[in-house]
Each structure stands twice: as structure tokens, then as C-alpha cells.
Known about the structure:
Blueprint: H1 2-8, H2 17-24, H3 27-36, H4 44-51, E1 58-62, H5 68-77, E2 80-85, H6 88-101, E3 104-108, E4 121-127, H7 136-146, E5 147-160, H8 166-170, H9 184-193, E6 197-203, H10 208-221, H11 223-230, H12 232-250, E7 254-262
Helix pairs in contact: 1-6, 3-12, 10-12, 11-12
Amino acid sequence: MGDIVRRKWMTMMDAHAGTVEAVYGGPVGLVWEILAGEDVEQGTSGLAERAGLGERTRVLALLPGTGGGVRRLVRECGATVIGLVAVPQVADEAVRRIEEAGQIDFQQGNALDMPFDDEVFDAVWGEDAWCYVTDRDRMIREVFRVLKPGGTLAFTDWVETGPMSNDEWHTRATFGIFPHFETIESYAVLLERNGFRIVDGGEVLDSPIRQIAGIHERLEHNRDMIAGLFGEGAYDDTLQALGLWERAAGRGLVGRGWLVARKP
Length: 264
């Protein structure tokens, strides 16, 4: 089934997707899935409630990774979910997992040119992945297009919560794999510019430092297994990346935000 999905949806997210695939399509991506693929933030239930998701809701999960978050969404809300995944390897793994879990469909496709008709979804859902997308204006226009009138957009994402210098942004030692971070306020402007009405938003209360520390603890606990499967280099690269996140979060530069918006 994974090969069928790969052949049918062999398009990339956008020009920046090469970086995403380089990071998450290799050993470091597999390590990350072991550490965090099922580590769903506990605020998912609250955001789903704010968005009004339920058993009759048809949801597009946009760039959901291997789907740990949306599997929880299905369990807790009973929504019908289609996940649109950018990276072939991740799409295959998501499909493998739904063969075990059921009730969800995943497709590989382009977030900037979605393979869906107009006005087919009741809601679009995102969790902490849109920070990789270069042309967010175009993505949001596509989200608006595929939502039904009155439909809901609800998402979390990593956002800038404190000022970072150009050196911090543009060196390989910091956030080189991201095109840029939005703030909660700039996300609101982006949504309104593309026709949405903001319903609510704010910072995710769960500490990003605590979240990253939990991943760090699991990384160290699984060191021998990860190094044995993927090599010392993959372990060291993942450890370095986590260290960057920890330092930035500790300085109050990055955190997580959420927004709920509606299509008129």
C-alpha cells in the first residue's frame, strides 16, 4: 500500500521540501520518530474542543508526520481524517501504522497544490509542522480553498517568542533548516489576509523546555539502541539539534502557539 501511495502522490511540499526530506527522510528522521513520533501534546484535546471537532467532522490533517497526533484525534473525537504528508518515507510509515490502527487515510502530496476539490473539508488541522513551509501564504490559500464555508482551521506550531539576531537565524548552528518562524501575531495577519476570521489563539501553556527535556531523556535512555541501528553520527546529530532547541527555549526565543480561525 505504501508503494501505491508513493507513486500516486510523488510531488513535494515546495522548494524547501528538499531540506525537510534531507532531515526527516534519513536516519535522523527515524530517530526522531522513535523519540517523539507518538509524544502528542496533551493540549490536543482542548484545541479540538475549541475547534468543534466531533464524529461528523471531516478533517484534513496537513503535514501530520506519521500521524501520532491525528490517531489521538480520531480516538478522542471520532473525526474522519485524511492526512496529507510531504515526505515519501514518512508517508509510507504513516500508511503502515494505519494498517494497524485503522480509521485514517494518508496520502503523499503537495501542501501548496493540494489534490482535493474545493470546499470538501469541515476542518483543517495542523501540529507543529508548518514552520518548515516556505510559502505559507500559498499554503493558507489552499487551506481556505478546500474548507467548506463556515469551516474551521485549528493548528499549533513552533513560533518565535523573543527577538533573534540575524546571526542566530542564518548560521547552521541554529535554525538553518527553517525558512523563518512566525509569531502568533504574524500568523493571525497571514490568516486574515487570506480571508479567515480569527476566533482565538495564544501560547501553548505546556512548557517547550519540559517537552524538549522529555525527548532528551528518551534519547539518552535509548542511546545504545539508536547508535546500533543508525550509527553514532545519527545519535550525535539528534543530540546536537535537541541542544539547540533547549538553549533557544531556555532563552525564551522559541515556543509553541495555537490559533483557531474560520472561513466565512
